[in-house]
Known about the structure:
Blueprint: H1 28-31, H2 40-47, H3 53-67, E1 110-113, E2 121-127, E3 132-135, H4 141-154, E4 157-158, H5 167-172, H6 178-185, E5 192-193, H7 195-200, H8 212-221, E6 232-233, H9 234-239, H10 242-251, E7 261-262, E8 264-268, H11 276-289, H12 293-297, E9 302-307, E10 312-316, E11 326-328, H13 329-332, E12 341-343, E13 346-353, E14 359-360, E15 363-365, H14 375-378, E16 397-399, E17 406-410, E18 412-414, E19 420-423, E20 429-431, E21 434-436, E22 439-447, H15 452-469
Parallel strand pairs: 11-12
Antiparallel strand pairs: 1-2, 2-3, 3-17, 4-8, 5-6, 7-10, 8-9, 9-22, 10-20, 13-17, 13-22, 14-21, 15-16, 15-20, 18-19
Bound molecules: 2-acetamido-2-deoxy-beta-D-glucopyranose (NAG) (3 copies).
One 2-acetamido-2-deoxy-beta-D-glucopyranose binds near residues 141, 356, 402 and 403.
Amino acid sequence: MEAAGNAVTGGPLQPPQDEPPPGRDRLSGIQKCGGSVCSRSYFVVVMVFVHVYILNVIALLFYVYYSNGTEPGEGAGSPAPDNRAVPRPEEMAGPYTYLPRIEGIKVGHKQILELVPNKIHEMRTLSLKPLLFEIPHFLTEDECKLLIHLARLKGLQTSQILPIDGYKEAMENLDISKTDIFNLLDHNQDGQLQIKEVLTHSRLGNGRWMTPDNIREMYSAVKADPDGNGVLSLDEFKKLNLRDFHKYLGKQKVTMSDLVRNSQHTWLYQGEGAHHVLRSIRQRVIKLTHLPSEIVENSEPLQVVQYDTGGHYHAHMDSGPVFPETACAHTKLTTNETAPFETSCRYVTVLFYLNNVTGGGETAFPVADNRTYEEMSLIQNDLDLRDTRKNCDKGNLRIKPRLGTAVFWYNYLSDGKGWVGDIDEFALHGGCLVTSGTKWIANNWINVDPNKQRQLWFQQEMARLAKDDGEKQKDWAVDKSYKDMHMDL
Length: 489
Ligand SMILES: *[C@@H]1O[C@H](CO)[C@@H](O)[C@H](O)[C@H]1NC(C)=O
Ligand SMILES: *[C@@H]1O[C@H](CO)[C@@H](O)[C@H](O)[C@H]1NC(C)=O
Ligand SMILES: *[C@@H]1O[C@H](CO)[C@@H](O)[C@H](O)[C@H]1NC(C)=O
């Protein structure tokens, strides 16, 4: 389950503080704002269409451009984050005032862990950007089998179904000029839309993964590029009828392999009263990450995922970008804010391999430990490094699934003060095509709100609810999508 908006990957959205944000100048015309486009309520109205991907992306882009420099709210543009260790204990003012971060030292560095009595685990650093570790034999073979068994008992559901219409009407009510949209998409500001500039906005595909060939087919179907040079000029873009575009998309036969994600999954409750193996895994995760148990206990349940032969998950971020207007799915219910933009805030991902895969199914980190990150070199016109069906072998790091191994990484950088800072763009990852056999994995996400106050409030409320209820198994009421996660075992 990915919250809408997750695929809005960083790059142009998060310009460093000391450089002029790219694109503010080119948007100066819009920034002067005539009419409704600039008002705050405009953003709220547009952003509530969280499933309306294209609007979401555009609205977010607008929001970022407007807010840059004007609102130094926490989250947006925090000071240069680093991977440094946590403050010393004497700097702590109370519980949860800092989040421990395991040090990676260097790639290949090994640390010994004692996660369960009478057993020693070795943890190896796989990359520093993102901070990524591997722990073989984290789960026993029996535990892996049990998780698969429980997931099957519970029943798995298709991870992604094609988003239904809905956005057509919304699109028609949207009052942004074609020129403005064009300028937002035209990353290098050369007055033309290259195919890779269109591909960057993966949400434009409305759930379908877009390849350069798809775009070319679409152009020719809706006659978007009459001169056939493969790029759209502003003039061509203005003439493009968005309704034709939507009609074309609606008529396309889309199979599972065309989607961003092709898998089935289910959720297993891990709170008090859960199966002892699920409890034990949670305890091990607490020991592994050194994070406060209250934070881990109030995180998402365990997600078990099955990829059949032909399954994949194109490269994505597990968390959305951090802006002042972003609300975390998990803390939203305990705050009164009406959030204009909601995302899952997953500080840490712990991924468990539950079987040995016969062929393929590696976890790819296409930009791990790359010297720089530049979204536009990730996506070339004919080579998209995010495409895990085609280009897994061209990325920087690939992890072969091995039964019982856990890998874990940080999706956020530190804010330099021991809390969560900006999203770590290097954490981009995906599941490579399973070429033979079935792949089973499980995910533990540890949810932390980059807004410390909101996280603390959430912890307090959850503790209060647990007490009031008098019932041990408190509902993880945080996201409607998890409401079916309780298991009767
Ligand atoms: C939310 O609203 C309720 C009632 O209006 C109030 O009692 C509570 O303190 C508010 N919570 C926050 C976090 O503002
Ligand atoms: C999985 O693969 C590892 C390493 O290749 C091997 O040691 C282990 O026995 C395999 N486990 C099973 C259940 O096939
Ligand atoms: C990886 O780093 C190299 C060297 O800095 C750079 O040229 C390339 O664009 C980077 N790749 C991505 C996807 O950012």
